[in-house]
Amino acid sequence: HDALPIPVLLSGNDALVRSQTGSGKTLAYAIPLVQSLQAIQPKIQRSDGPCAVVLVPTRELALQSFEAIQKLLKPFTWIVPGILMGGEKRKSEKARLRKGINILVTTPGRLLDHIKHTKSISFRRVQWFIIDEADRLLDLGFEKDVAAILNALNATQEKRQNVLLSATLTDGVSRLAGISLREPVNIQVTEAHVGEPTSEAGANEEVVCQGNAERDSDGYSIPEQLQQLIVLVPSKLRLVTLSAFILQKCKFEGPQKMMIFFSSCEAVEFHNNLFTKVLITHTAGGEAKPSPHEVQFLRLHGNMEQEARTKVFTEFSQSKAGVLLCTDVAARGLDLPQVTWIVQYSAPPSPAEYV
């Protein structure tokens, strides 16, 4: 359903794409990006360095986008994708940059770090600049970093195609669009069937494909298959209610994948320790006794080592059942397949966070 941005981007326009998280939007920019780079003659070489820079807010999202781009590049072996993100050794990243990376997927802090300290990084050949989850980048305080990266790109190569993707259109996102996009086409992607835009999408023209996805006045797009339920519970019964809900759904109703959002890393750790002690059947020796209906708990938050985060993310993506306890920072925008329940244990601070 993200077919709409593709023709607009293939035609060379800058674009502001409003699309809910996890809705295949990586492909919406990755397909035109790969399509245009593979057509370049003479063929792109490693030594050309970056031809595209994709900026994402978190390491998990960087991994997810990188993997999607990697799949698309299978037939075009001469184009080298690469990923830069905190948590990796800076030295090995420097070496990879020296060898040459054509499509660079990166978090802002890390890229800025290399712009300042890695001599071999050059943006002379950059033809695409993509800012994904722009609203999230701003929530995490990256506005100055993004502006600095834009300055570095503009210093060497003004002419390129810019794409900004965001689930919400806040003032900050509009500001960012103002400095990064030139006469952009505005595209609204919802879950519904996406037709071609009827008119030639000109500068600043709004192409709205409105399905029966609900949209509220503040401009959030909510997936239409999403059922939203709320349970009002006295605060001292919250923990008991959550535990009962996990057991009911995951132990008695068969395999389910559930994500539970907490407001802090400490809360994730506390509940993980508690649930693994209390909700899992233990043998006399205190060992957890794996039974076919046992609930598996995983945790994901920003204070974990990068290696552990990656491992959990992969494990939960691939498993058929389990409960992921996480903070919104670590999990926003991740496309985790077959999740049946999403529980917000602490009320999200804003509708934008919630969507």
Question: What's the quick description here?
Answer:
The protein has 355 residues and is of the alpha/beta class. It is built from 13 helices and twelve strands.
Descriptive overview:
Residues 225-355 form the Helicase C-terminal domain. Belongs to the DEAD box helicase family. By secondary structure, the protein is α/β, with parallel strands linked by helices. It has two domains: 4-188, P-loop containing nucleotide triphosphate hydrolases (Rossmann fold); 237-281 and 293-353, 3-Layer(aba) Sandwich (Rossmann fold), CATH 3.40.50.300. Helices cover 38% and strands 15% of the residues. The protein is built from 13 helices and twelve strands. The chain has an eight-stranded parallel sheet, sandwiched between helices. The longest helix is centred in the last third of the chain and has 15 residues, at 238-252.
Question: Helices, strands, pairings?
Answer:
Blueprint: H1 5-10, E1 15-19, H2 25-38, E2 52-55, H3 59-72, E3 81-84, H4 90-99, E4 103-106, H5 108-117, E5 128-131, H6 134-139, H7 143-156, E6 161-166, H8 171-180, E7 185-189, E8 206-208, H9 238-252, E9 257-262, H10 265-278, E10 297-300, H11 306-318, E11 322-327, H12 328-331, E12 341-344, H13 351-354
Parallel strand pairs: 1-6, 1-7, 2-4, 2-5, 3-4, 5-6, 7-8, 9-11, 9-12, 10-11
Helix pairs in contact: 2-3, 5-7
